[in-house]
Amino acid sequence: MEGLQADLPYPETAGISEDAYSVRVISPAYADRGSEMTAILQYVFQAIVLQKQGLEEYAKMLERIAVAEMHHLEMLGSLLYQLGALPVFTSCPPRKIDFYSTGAVSYASDVRKMILDDILGETQAIYTYEEMIRKLKDEKVSAIIARIVLDEKLHLETLKNILRELNKQE
Questions:
Q1: What does each C-alpha distance from 74 to 59, 62, 155, 159 come to in angstroms?
Q2: CA 126 – CA 153 distance, rounded (Å)
Q3: Which residue, 99, 106, 124, is CA-closest to 43?
Q4: What does the pLDDT read at residue 169?
Q5: Is residue 167 over pLDDT 70?
Q6: Ferritin/DPS domain spans which residues (predicted)?
Q7: What CA–CA distance (Å, rounded) separates 107 from 71?
């Protein structure tokens, strides 16, 4: 399945070297409460529930978003490794403390509540990534984060469109 992503290539990681500061800045997007890991788990859960509720079109769209988020997670993990941190699922790799928890995943089963939670999550992700870009000093790392933001904005617009469709059905 193809992920829902902007129609632009991702920047190359060649030439990025170890940088503890960049690790600290981007780590929250990897495996913290509002991370790509949380988004993946939430979208997969929702896709399963929506598919079982007979809302297959919405389930497929959330699966496509989840696939894009998986790509982001893989890119961030690879980037963390290249920056000098073992990409363990903690809030601040490479430290093996404060391991990832699914506590921030929304387990709502009502389709509108799901989409509203997703809209909030994507909005927060965009804000977090834009803050990272402001803090980062490495232009190559910033470019990768900026490219991820384009996908997150596409996800947000897609979710808003789904919500509009749901509201028309009332």
A1: 22, 18, 18, 23
A2: 7
A3: 106
A4: 84
A5: yes
A6: 35-167
A7: 23
Write the pLDDT tens digit of every residue in 36-94: 999 999 999 999 999 999 999 999 999 999 999 999 999 999 999 999 999 999 877 66
| Tokens at 169, concatenated | 């059905």
Residues 142-161: tens digit of each pLDDT: 999 999 999 999 999 999 99
Domain boundaries, the chain: 20-168
Query: Can you tell me the distance from the alpha carbon of 134 to that of 131, in angstroms, rounded to the nearest whole number?
Result: 5
Prediction pTM value: 0.94
Domain 20-168 has CATH 3.10.20.340: no
Q: How many CB atoms lie within 10 A of CB 86?
A: 12
**Least confident stretch, 2-6, 96-100, 106-110:** 96-100
Q: What does the pLDDT read at residue 107?
A: 96
CA distances from 160 to 42, 52, 69, 145, 157 (A): 17, 22, 18, 23, 5
Q: Check residue 91 and report its DSSP letter.
A: S
Contacts of residues 74-78 at CB distance under 8 Å and 24 or more positions apart, as own/partner, are: 75/10, 75/144, 75/148, 76/26, 76/29, 76/30, 76/36, 77/30, 78/13
